[in-house]
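User: tokens in, sequence out, please.
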């Protein structure tokens, strides 16, 4: 422990000085809005994807592209669209509406592939790319439907377990960023499927927490595939560590969407009242909360629990799709982010958490009040 004394003293001095000279709570931040757009005529947003300085949004007015670099708005399609899926490592965007299932190039914004007939029950059928190729998976009730880019082949169907009480629930599915694995909710569990296996006995596994009592709505990997964020029907959030098979449930509720940033281990959570929370999900500490967003529509509804948050590639911007408002904001430059980076260089995890708890205590906000 002797080797930690000098850096600990330096950090402690910095913490005390920062706390004495700054009356502002480091967790409470005013929003710095880089971009804001309000849909006219009672139109609604449903989901979004952030790619190459462009935010693609779906809604009742079709798919819009908000070009951050040039500060311009343009339409990709006028057809009302609910689900989109961004490829994890290619410039491809899949869209699903009542007319077609299609893929667009996110750079040229040109359609590169389409399936002649739409997905059945397209509003409640999420889609996702696999990381290995351009294959699209669609999940509906008791089946995964596989769409390849070969139009000569009919879509394949993989039958998966399904609970009858889940038939009217809107789900989200997720692909592993590097492995051929899919996640989909299975009643009060999460199912992980190896897409290379056509037999469930070979490629099907269940992730389950003993005290889960609510239906699971969505499960999403982080960019490294070693954490899974989970939201249930009671809007409770749970974080699953894939490496050591542990769960951490947040005591607060009312969460409806999430986004992982790959640069600083940041997790953004959107609540039903329009609050954005930032967490370091590796050591489970809060970083910032932005509370001055407003909604003129009930974000508690099932159809609001879609992909409404997404970071840009560098993690410096966060796009937020509320009911009829789109915001692009800067990731908060909280002192806790700077302190965390500094502590990470010198201290083990347990000591880092103790120091951060000291910061929160000096700012009259304990960690237990937030987790």
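Assistant: Sequence out:
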């Amino acid at each position: 422990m002797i080797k930690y004394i000098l850096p600990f003293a330096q950090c402690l001095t910095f913490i005390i000085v920062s706390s004495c000279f700054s009356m502002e709570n480091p967790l409470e931040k005013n929003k710095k809005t880089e971009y804001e757009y309000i849909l006219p005529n009672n139109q609604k947003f449903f989901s979004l994807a952030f790619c190459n300085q462009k935010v693609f949004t779906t809604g009742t007015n079709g798919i819009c592209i908000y070009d951050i670099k040039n500060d311009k708005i343009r339409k990709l399609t006028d057809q009302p669209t609910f689900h989109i899926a961004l490829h994890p490592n290619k410039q491809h965007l899949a869209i699903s509406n009542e007319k077609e299932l299609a893929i667009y190039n996110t750079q040229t914004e040109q359609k590169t592939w389409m399936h002649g007939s739409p997905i059945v029950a397209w509003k409640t059928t999420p889609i996702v790319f696999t990381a290995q190729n351009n294959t699209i998976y669609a999940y509906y009730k008791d089946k995964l439907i596989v769409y390849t880019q070969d139009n000569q082949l009919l879509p394949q169907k993989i039958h998966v377990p399904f609970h009858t009480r889940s038939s009217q629930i809107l789900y989200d599915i997720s692909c592993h960023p590097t492995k051929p694995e899919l996640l989909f909710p299975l009643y009060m569990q999460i199912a992980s499927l190896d897409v290379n296996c056509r037999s469930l006995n070979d490629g099907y596994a269940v992730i389950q927490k003993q005290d889960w009592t609510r239906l699971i709505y969505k499960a999403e990997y982080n960019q490294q595939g070693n954490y899974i964020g989970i939201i249930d029907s009671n809007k409770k959030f749970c974080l699953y560590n894939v490496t050591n098979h542990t769960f951490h449930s947040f005591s607060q509720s009312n969460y409806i969407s999430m986004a992982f940033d790959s640069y600083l281990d940041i997790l953004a959570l959107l609540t039903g009242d329009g609050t954005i929370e930032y967490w370091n999900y590796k050591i489970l500490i809060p970083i910032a909360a932005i509370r001055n967003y407003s909604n003129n529509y009930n974000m508690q509804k099932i159809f609001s629990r879609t992909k409404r948050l997404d970071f840009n590639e560098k993690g410096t911007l966060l796009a937020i799709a509320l009911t009829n408002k789109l915001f692009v904001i800067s990731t908060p430059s909280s002192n806790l982010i700077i302190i965390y980076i500094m502590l990470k260089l010198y201290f083990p995890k347990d000591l880092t958490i103790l120091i951060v708890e000291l910061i929160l205590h000096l700012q009259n906000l304990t960690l237990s009040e937030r987790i």
